[in-house]
Design goal:
Layout lengths: L4 E4 L2 E4 L37 E7 L4 H5 L10 E6 L2 E6 L1 E3 L10 H8 L20 E3 L5 H9 L1 E7 L6 H10 L3 E3 L2 E7 L14 E5 L4 E2 L14 H7 L4 E4 L16 H4 L3 H4 L1 E2 L4 H7 L6 E4 L16 H13 L7 E7 L23 E6 L7 E3 L3 E2 H12 L41 H5 L12
Parallel strand pairs: 3-15, 3-16, 6-7, 8-18, 8-19, 13-14, 13-15
Antiparallel strand pairs: 1-2, 4-5, 8-17, 9-10, 10-11, 11-12, 16-17
Helix pairs in contact: 4-10, 8-9
């Protein structure tokens, strides 16, 4: 973990090993880059044939790291860096899944973003090299390119907040992680468990409206400060499940373990499902919920630190299971990666509030109604997925943009579908590892990531 730190939108000051918590200052908000606030809006689509939505969440890849060179997408094969104060062009080089695990905390994102110049990635290479300027060779991720070719590749999906996995997973179920309008959760808590199972006295790290991060300065990591889709889905009697490697202390990838309403209520034993491979059995046995979030084990996660190439096959196993099932004609699948993992990306994220938007990640949208071979350039964020859920099931928004919720302001992913077309027949996605390997995979206690 990094030491105590203070960050601003104009730079980063790191004080490793300091003994006091970073102080919030009174610098003017005018130091922030200009913030753009889209108008709120929401509608329900009564004619939408989608009855099942499955969100598959993988780990730590930028868009350019997986889709550099993809035809028709914003996906160059070169990037920009800063060397001796000069902006230079740096070719992206191919790597395998044995590539490095790059730094990807909040301060790394801010430096790499560099006020929208997207040229600070060379500051976090390995031994000063350009390790971040890389893409995984297509031969290693054929299933993802196949899905993009057959369905929709969204090339402007941005996480809600700068920084690593935990806040990404929170915003994928809540559309916000605001503790109040000027303060949000950031990075980690002071406990090894970022959840309602944390030790007494644990506190979360926060980021304020001036983009100053304060370590261990927030509340206990068992949140009731914001609504989540669990409350909304339960109230509407729409079934949901969240698949994780294990129930207790899976780390920062089980968002609902940090939500008091779920962890202290009946949903915890009914709707949070372990191990994650149960999703394959639920599909086959006809037990798929209306809304599902699926998180991976470490070997199946695409995480650079896992040094495993099983992730694309894991995702393909879920997609193929759904495609061959009776659920296919009423299903939408969204595959995305929780954060950028420190890898280069060329697309400056629009700044909608003090949290972000953050550095771009890949997104695949798969459905019998998805536009075939379509590259969507629509600006999406994690709230776009929640908004689509609300449209599909006629649900109210989680809250207003003024209170930090993003589902009201976000563009829905609905424009990536054509609901006037007949549902297309499914064609299986070829993959290196067969589904039986994942069905036989033993439950794992290994953490997927530590940031």
């Amino acid at each position: 973990m990094v030491g105590k730190l203070v960050l601003t939108a104009l730079g980063v000051i790191v004080c490793a090993g300091c003994s006091s918590v970073a102080k919030t200052t009174t610098e003017s908000p005018s130091l922030l880059p200009s913030l753009v606030t889209p108008a709120d809006g929401h509608r329900a689509s009564s004619s939408m044939p989608i009855k099942h939505i499955v969100v598959i969440i993988q780990e730590n890849r930028s868009f350019d790291n997986f889709f550099a060179g993809y035809p028709g997408a914003d996906a160059p094969t070169y990037g920009y860096g800063e060397v001796s104060g000069k902006r230079v062009t740096i070719p992206l080089h191919p790597i395998t899944f044995d590539g490095p695990n790059l730094p990807h905390a909040w301060q790394n994102a801010i430096v790499e973003w560099n006020n929208g110049k997207m040229d600070g990635f060379s500051k976090y290479g390995q031994n000063g090299d350009d390790a971040a300027y890389a893409y995984v060779a297509r031969s290693w991720i054929k299933p993802y390119w196949r899905m993009a070719h057959k369905y929709v590749l969204a090339d402007h999906m941005f996480p809600t907040e700068f920084g690593p996995s935990w806040t990404a997973h929170l915003t994928l179920v809540a559309g916000t992680d605001n503790l109040n309008p000027d303060l949000a959760v950031a990075d980690f808590s002071s406990s090894g468990y970022n959840s309602c199972d944390a030790q007494p006295g644990a506190k979360v790290t926060t980021v304020n409206q001036y983009r100053h991060v304060s370590l261990d300065s927030g509340p206990y990591p068992c949140f009731n400060q914001f609504n989540t889709m669990a409350e909304t889905l339960d109230a509407a009697k729409v079934s949901w499940k969240y698949y994780v490697t294990k129930l207790t202390a899976p780390g920062i990838w089980s968002a609902f373990e940090a939500i008091k309403y779920v962890k202290r209520g009946p949903d915890w034993h009914m709707d949070v499902i372990a191990p994650q491979t149960q999703v394959l059995k639920d599909i086959k046995q006809g037990n798929l919920a209306s809304v599902s979030w699926v998180t991976p084990s470490k070997p199946d996660s695409d995480h650079p630190g896992a040094h495993s190439d099983k992730g694309p096959s894991w995702v393909a196993s879920i997609v193929n299971s759904l495609g061959k099932s009776s659920y296919w004609d009423s299903t939408a699948i969204v595959v995305l990666w929780d954060d950028w993992g420190g890898w280069y990306d060329d697309s400056p994220p629009p700044q909608l509030d003090f949290r972000g938007l953050a550095i771009r990640v890949p997104c695949l949208i798969i459905s019998p109604y998805a536009k075939p071979g379509y590259v969507s350039h629509t600006q999406y964020e994690y709230g776009s997925i929640l908004k689509f859920m609300e449209e599909a099931f006629g649900l109210p928004p989680l809250g207003s943009s003024a209170d930090g919720y993003t589902d009201t302001r976000a563009n829905s992913i609905e424009d990536s579908f054509d609901f006037t077309q007949k549902p297309r027949a499914f064609e299986p996605i070829p993959a290196k590892y067969p589904i039986k390997q994942f069905l036989a995979e033993p439950p794992s206690d290994e953490a997927v990531d530590d940031e």
